[in-house]
Prior knowledge:
With 202 residues, this protein is mainly alpha-helical. The protein has 2 domains: 150 residues, no CATH class; 35 residues. The protein is 69% helix and 0% strand. It has 6 helices and no strands. Helix 1 crosses helix 2 and helix 1 runs antiparallel to helix 3. The mean pLDDT is 86.
Amino acid sequence: LVHGDVFRPPRYGMLLSVVVGSGIQVFLMTLVTLIFACLGFLSPANRGYLMTCSMVLYVCFGFPGGYVSARLYKSFGGEKWKSNVLLTSMLCSGVVFSLFFFMNLLLWYKGSSAAIPFSTLIALLSLWFLVSVPLTFIGAFFGYRKRTLENPVRTNKIPRQIPEQTIYTQPLPGIIMGGVLPFGCIFIQLFFILNSIWSSQT
């Protein structure tokens, strides 16, 4: 019954394509880092090498991120490809870097030895703007030049009427049930496990 509405372009197609492109970038970074760690090239005990490898791989995988984002955005009928590329290269990375910079400022203020030096932050910004952003633009260029993805079925011109939703299918209760219940189960199990391990210690 819904085959003619499944492939309808979403309301926020730009945001969806940007998040999917950034997700591909993070997924490939995680996959290659895990492969290197399993093969013995990276030791989890040495967190510095692990983080450096992850950052370099994330920067280098800007090409597939931009490619996937542009291809998906074009299949939604989007025409603002420059905004798409800019958001793909800046949105998720910018949010993470802003949080990282803010926490680092607090560490600097407290005089902690865990604070990252200013030169390292400049190096991270250089990697981001001089490597990741151009690679994202190149990937988006090739992705936008490709032929539009063809849907297996045709989309109806008139959308189907969505019936009234019950309270537990609304977004907020779904978020609460999807987050609180697993957290509660894990917390209780960990509480009993750690209590049984450390109960004899005073």
